[in-house]
């Protein structure tokens, strides 16, 4: 079983090796892993990681190099973390969509109410030619529920009234 410290060291070693393609020293690992332990402690952890088959030391005075097993461990860890983030992202997007649907349903309800009020206040069969949209706004004005979303409907209504 790999400890949390060993996991940090292994992750730092893999990242460093991927960037430089050279064996990674315990001094560099101490710095890149952000561990508050001495280099000898890191070397002891590296020895345990070597015994687990996760890293190798090309020669006695060299730094360490990750093995295929280490790359698989590293990739698996990233995949687990990303899947959790993906699930959180999907859940947030679903909740956002639910809120938007609720808002749109509320707007549709207000639009229906506005249309009912407008139909009850509409007394004219035709409008003067000067400014039809202005006239419709005056007719609707008493309901005080005119919304931006009503503009398309109003334009449709104008077209229907022109046909009369």
| Global outline | rod-shaped
- Strand composition percent: under 5%
Mean pLDDT: 77
Overall number of strands: 2
Q: What is the overall number of helices?
A: 6
The whole-angstrom Rg is 35 Å
The total tally of domains equals 2
Strand adjacency order, main sheet: 1-2
Distance linking N and C termini: 83 Å
Measured as a percent range, the helix fraction is over 70%
Helices and strands, in order, run as: HHHEEHHH
List keywords for this structure.
164 residues, mainly alpha, Arc Repressor Mutant, subunit A, 2 domains, two-stranded antiparallel ribbon, 6 helices, rod-shaped
Description:
70% of the residues lie in helices and 2% in strands. The radius of gyration is 35 Å and the shape is rod-shaped. The chain has helices at residues 4-20, 26-33, 39-51, 68-121, 132-140, 150-163, and strands at residues 55-56, 65-66. The chain has 2 domains: 4-66, Arc Repressor Mutant, subunit A; 73-163, no CATH class. Helix 1 (4-20) packs across helix 2 and helix 2 packs across helix 3 (39-51). It is built from 6 helices and 2 strands. 16% of the residues are buried. By secondary structure, it is mainly α.
